[in-house]
Amino acid sequence: MSRLFRLLTWPAALFVAGILLWYEQYKLTGAGASVWLFTVLTDWLGLHGYEAWMRWFVGLMEIGASVAIVVPATRAFGAAWALGIMSGAIFFHLVSPLGIDPYHDGGGLFTEACEVWLCAAFVLAVYREEALALVRKYSPVAI
Q1: Is 82 exposed, middle or buried (0-12, 13-18, 19+ CB in 10 A)?
Q2: DSSP alpha helix (H) spans, the chain
Q3: What is the number of other CB atoms lying within 10 angstroms of the CB of residue 81?
Q4: What is the spatial distance between Cα 74 and Cα 56, in angstroms, rounded to a whole number?
């Protein structure tokens, strides 16, 4: 069963990377909808004028997580990274003025964030031993 789960992490990891990388074309080129979304977030956070910085930062973090999750040696780290990014995205959709349907398309962006979160959580659960080994190795607190 463990081997089957490990094999199933491939489509899950590719899905995570595919979704994250798809949105980079909007974040990194400054597409209007992406600029609007990050303007709403930065204004709500009191970081007026930092929309581009936040958009680029999130985009670069998503690229890093996408690469890490598809490389088997860094899959646990990439899954944790993607899980963290998507936890932030889901959080901001739920508590900020964005809401779960910012583009009035039936909540597609929010739904994809939840799907990516679930796939990243699955990969991390399958690679939990590797993840715990990383935490033990690099944590300043003994675990």
Answers
A1: buried
A2: 2-22, 24-27, 32-44, 51-70, 75-95, 108-126, 128-138
A3: 22
A4: 23
Residue 56 CA to residue 15 CA, distance in Å, equals: 22
Distances (CA, A) of 107 to 27, 75, 97: 19, 29, 14
b (16+ CB within 10 A) / e for 5-41:
eeeebeebbebbbebbbebbebbeeeeeebbebbbbb
Instruction: Dump pLDDT digits (tens) for 38-97.
Output: 999 999 999 999 999 999 999 999 999 999 999 999 999 999 999 999 999 999 999 999
For all residues of the chain together, what is the average pLDDT?
96
Residues 6 and 92: their CA atoms lie apart, in Å, by 31
Give backbone dihedrals phi and psi of 102, rounded to 5 degrees, phi first: -65, -30
Cα–Cα distance, 49 to 39 (Å, whole number): 8
Q: Dihedral of the CA atoms 87, 70, 64, 46 (nearest 10)?
A: -20
Can you spell out the DSSP letters for 111-133? HHHHHHHHHHHHHHHHTHHHHHH
Greatest Cα-to-Cα distance within the chain, rounded to the nearest angstrom: 51
